[in-house]
Amino acid sequence: MSTLRRNGRRPERPERLPGDGIAIVGAACHLPGAPDLDTFWTLLAEGRDAVTSIPPERFDQARWLHPRKSEAGRTYTFAAGTIGDAAGFDAQAFGLSPREAAEMDPQQRVLLEVAAEAFEDAGWPGERLAGRNIAVFVGGSSTDYAELRLADPSAADRFFMTGNALSILSNRIGNVFDLRGPAQTVDTACSSSLVALHLAVRALRDDPSLEAAVVGGVSMLLSPYSFIGFSRAGMLSPTGRCQAFDAAADGYVRAEGAGVVVLKRLADAIADGDAIRAVLLGTGANAAGRTIGLSLPNRNAQAALMERVIACSGIAPERFLAFEAHGTGTRVGDPAETWAIGTTIAQRRAAPLPIGSVKTNIGHLEAASGMAGLLKAMLMLEKGAIPPSLHFREPNPEIDFAGLNIAVQTRLAPAPVAADSVVGVNSFGFGGTNATVLVGRAPETKPRAAAAGRSMPPLVLSARSEAALTLLAQRWRERLDGADAAETAALARGVARHRDLATHRLVLRGEDGATLAATIDAWATGEKPASAEQGQAVRGALAYVFSGNGAQYAGMAQEALRHSAPFRAAVKQADAVLAPLLGWSPLAVLKRGVTAEALTGTDIAQPLLFAVQVGVVGALAAQGIRPAMALGHSVGEVAAAWCSGILTLEQAARLIVARSGHQHATRGTGRMAAIGASPEALALLLEACGPGLEIAAVNGPSAVTVAGPAEAIARLCPAAEQARFSAVPLDLDYAFHAAAMEPVRDGLLRDLAALAPQAGTMPMVSTVTGATLPGEEAGAAYWWRNLREPVRFRDAAREAGRMGVRLFLEIGPSPVLQSYLRESLREDTGEAAVLASLSRRDPPGDPFPAVIDRAIARGADPRGG
């Protein structure tokens, strides 16, 4: 994600922003007829009216509806802009229990969903927000859900208060995303969300330690009581339409929904490479003071606020592209507001100032209405167009349009956006609290050039439940359809870099947007396309497990060498240090195709194994996959020590050459066998079949490798089978980890005397000791123990599990440790995923996309986490 940095500058005046302002770096909405920002703009541009009526399942409307305005306890309208299902909510996606979610006001639920989408839009993974000093400001005033719940007090449980208190609207976001900045819910009636925005801007300017701020507004229409109250006050439109600025204006239409923006200091946003959507150039709030009636607007107070905000921001009237008015469609409110806009801005410029109101499209969201206006302003600047304000046919005679130099925008009009263009937004509360915001265009930023020859990355989608993943995939399907290869690659890289990696994952491959869209379609119907990898991520770290002897095979790694440039480059690096020591080139042998006969000698097999393992690590790292821990089986510990930073590549090369050469000198002095028994169960059998038999490796709870003289191994296998243990003689002419190694001890220690290990960059769990290996202790004596003592693989795997590893990726030409890992981890770790990298069954072509996709789907982080 983009780094959240701090800025220590302090402002001179509250309403004046620094010259570069406050950036909107993320935004999202769920509004009537518009579940997202793209749909919202389409609705605005097409001039559609999303107002319908309250869904019948909300409450018994017939009981409360009456056409006569004077009817007590009744409302004359249930016209409204709604967002549909008020009950649907994926509690699991936010770590909430179904019981607690049921008591939560739907306003909290909608806010969480929209906040998550705003963070996604900002490219800030939720997991990396945890613990950050980020503030939350929310505008909200409705208590409909609590009113409904109070009808049956006995049904309230321990979650009722936190589920319904207005303060929790902001606290809930801070709690779920683990944000540590202040959380404040603002209730100034219809101006709540813009006042919340103003407070957030001031907080960012006044508190240098504050990293960012989340600002939202929400309103849900769940009860008939507010309809009744506003009807009694005569505020609602009997015609069910918000006819702002029109002679027929007869009141406003209620609406519901939510909008959220993520704010950051502009200088920080630019420095951190955030995608900036717009810039807040000025904000302010004031109160109407004493008026004839509490709910009557004070045009002088409105004008004074606009005058002050404009003056403090230093914006000339000619810079205004348009002005998004509060525009509720009331007989008193519209004339007062237009007078204030005209006298402070429009009369001081040559061209008439276009004005409009989003309430004509979606209704009045009350506490969230300012957020809807802000998002409309942001989109106008992004799209370079002014959408129409609806239901304007005959100008309100109480408004002097010509004298005020204002014009209601009645059609979609292209509006070339200059670098200094501004859109104003007003929001006024019926208690007299006013708010004004000036929104500027996002600065031009230089796009980062794409690296030449970069391959198409996977598109990684993730969510906290399978249902949420399905919905996310469908949203991406629409976004991808029609995107060319370059656009698709940019989107995929952006998601891989920024998107929150949740538990349920879908990893997609494709050459362009259309291909990915088709893959999503196939996956959604239950197919299992090869280019889609779905999985449930385990919760824990990733460890690389380096294969030991037995992973090699004739012709290994040839497809990877041909088709994977990162693999090839890493093997070349290994070859550069190995070849001078060996007198032959591992790279050349691998390219040519190593034979089965050559692999029978440790002096050939082990350097080749090491080179392949270095190549696999390099190929995975090129796609951002990096482990948190390493362990290796026997000779695999050499690559593990290199991977963990204990040994340099040159040191590891010298070690593998010395180790394999000395082991090769013991060829023909013993044999080995794999026995399906525990060490305890095997003890008497070894004594009976000896002498000279030793346990060479404990690989699992019932998986032991035995080494010793050939004749003793020949006696052991049938005896083990007779005792009802599986017994498989290994095709090895060596007795590793046994007395047959003793003759090479002095020579190995002498050749490794100059080895200078160091503290590693990550933990390495030793299969010599079964515990974490201090890097400084990995000198010559340790590597003699690695050669001579039994491999405690079972202990090492369990120790890795106890240390928090839950994803184990075997690194080698073909997997040989998978069953051992699963059986060992099953003893006390429980949930764990065991995967392979290369395999002799890999299809032709580059094997690493499939390896990487499987790893990401099961929990790996492609950002190197």
TrEMBL record:
What the entry lists under InterPro entries is as follows:
Ac_transferase_dom_sf, Acyl_transferase_dom, Acyl_Trfase/lysoPLipase, Ketoacyl_synth_AS, Ketoacyl_synth_C, Ketoacyl_synth_N, Malonyl_transacylase_ACP-bd, PKS_assoc
Q: Check the UniProt entry and state the signal peptide residues, or none.
A: none
Give the Gene Ontology MF terms in alphabetical order: 3-oxoacyl-[acyl-carrier-protein] synthase activity; fatty acid synthase activity
Q: Which UniProt keywords apply?
A: Phosphopantetheine, Phosphoprotein, Transferase
An example GO BP is: fatty acid biosynthetic process
**Name under which the protein is recorded:** Type I polyketide synthase
Q: Which domain of life is it from?
A: Bacteria
User: What's one Pfam family the UniProt record gives for this protein?
Assistant: Acyl_transf_1
What lineage is this protein's organism placed in? Answer: Bacteria, Pseudomonadati, Pseudomonadota, Alphaproteobacteria, Acetobacterales
Q: Which residues form the Ketosynthase family 3 (KS3) domain?
A: 19-441
* Protein's organism: Neoroseomonas soli
SUPFAM superfamilies (alphabetical): FabD/lysophospholipase-like (SSF52151), Probable ACP-binding domain of malonyl-CoA ACP transacylase (SSF55048), Thiolase-like (SSF53901)
